[in-house]
Amino acid sequence: MFLTISTTGTPERPATDLGFLLHKHPDRAQTFSTSHGTAHVLYPEASTERCTAAVLLEIDPVALVRRGKGKGRGGAPDAALAQYVNDRPYAASSLLAVALSTVFKSALRGVCAALPERAASPLPLRIEIPAVPARGGAELVRALFEPLGWASVRAEPVPLDERFPQWGDSRYVRLVLEGEPRLADALRQLYVLLPVLDDAKHYWVAPDEVDKLLRAGEGWLAEHPEQRLITSRYLARRWGLTRQAMARLELVRLAEADDIEVEAIDNAVEETPAEDADSAEVGEGTGNGGGTEGALPEEVSLASQRREAILTALRDAGASSVLDLGCGQGQLMQALLKDTRFGRVVGVDVSVRALTIASRRLKLDRMSERQAERVTLTQGALTYTDKRLKGYDAAVLSEVIEHLDPPRLPALEYAVFGSARPGTVVVTTPNVEYNVRWETLPAGHVRHGDHRFEWTRAEFREWAGEVGRRHGYEVTYRPVGPDDPEVGPPTQMAVFTVTDPRNAQTAQTTRTARAPVTTQATQTARKEEKAA
Question: Does the reported pTM lie above 0.85?
Answer without folding.
Answer: no
